[in-house]
Amino acid sequence: MTDLRGLHQVTDVELSSAASTAANTEPVAPVFLAVFNAHVGYVCQTLRRLGVREADIEDVAHDVFLQVHLQLHQYDASRPLRPWLFAFAFRKASEHRRQARVRLEVVGAVDEPPDPAPSALEQALRHEALQLGHQALAEIEFNQRAVFVLHELDGCAMPEVAAVLEIPLNTAYSRLRLARAAFDKAVRRLRLQRGDS
């Protein structure tokens, strides 16, 4: 997996300005590198949340950013960047799932870099909660999961979610409702399996 520590973070405002300039005078490469460096972690995390196996995340992220590079000139700088990137990640995760070699979603341990501040117990509890969350996400139907991740985890407004996924707003709300119910049910079942109360 790509080492994400120490990457330069670029804000949407900086990107918007750079994209406008690039569209008029510069090649896309510097803008693309800024987008990649600032958002590769987000894209990898999104792919993980959409059920891409840990071993495949780097390859699928590569495919995502290849498409981003090819279509960067079409980016509307007046809109938020992350939902635009999510749409690429969603399509590539969907393609990846349809491949013959990827038939079963396996959610293993999440490799999170250790946080130096919390105690070992706090780290263990956090890791367990993340693992539980990823396992519960894996049980949500894929299209419902996309709405859930984009709205609940990434904080996008529902109209933006519907626009990114190219679905009617009512469909997006329906999928969100079903995803929330499925997530809650999966968490309860997984906790019972673990013997949690």
Give the helices and strands, then pairings:
Elements (H helix, E strand, L loop, with lengths): L11 H13 L4 H21 L7 H15 L9 H18 L21 H19 L3 H12 L4 H8 L3 H26 L3
Helix pairs in contact: 1-2, 2-3, 2-4, 3-4, 4-7, 5-8, 6-7, 6-8, 7-8
Describe the structure.
With 197 residues, the chain is an all-alpha fold. The chain folds into two domains: 1-104, Orthogonal Bundle (Rna Polymerase Sigma Factor, Chain: A); 118-197, Orthogonal Bundle (Arc Repressor Mutant, subunit A), CATH 1.10.10. It is built from eight helices and no strands. The longest helix is centred in the C-terminal third of the chain and has 26 residues, at 169-194. It is globular. The two termini are 35 Å apart. Mean pLDDT is 78; it is low at 1-25.
Quick structural gist:
With 197 residues, the protein is an all-alpha fold. It contains 8 helices and no strands.
CATH topology-level fold name of the largest domain: Rna Polymerase Sigma Factor, Chain: A
What general outline do the C-alpha atoms trace?
Answer: globular
Mean pLDDT, all residues: 78
Q: What composes the largest sheet?
A: none
CATH class of the largest domain: Mainly Alpha
Total strands: 0
Quickly count the domains.
Answer: 2
Mind telling me the C-alpha Rg? 18 Å
Helix tally? Answer: 8
Could you spell the SSE succession in H and E letters?
HHHHHHHH
Distance between the termini: 35 Å
Q: What is the CATH homologous superfamily assignment of the largest domain?
A: RNA polymerase sigma factor, region 2, helix turn helix motif
CATH-defined architecture of the largest domain? Orthogonal Bundle
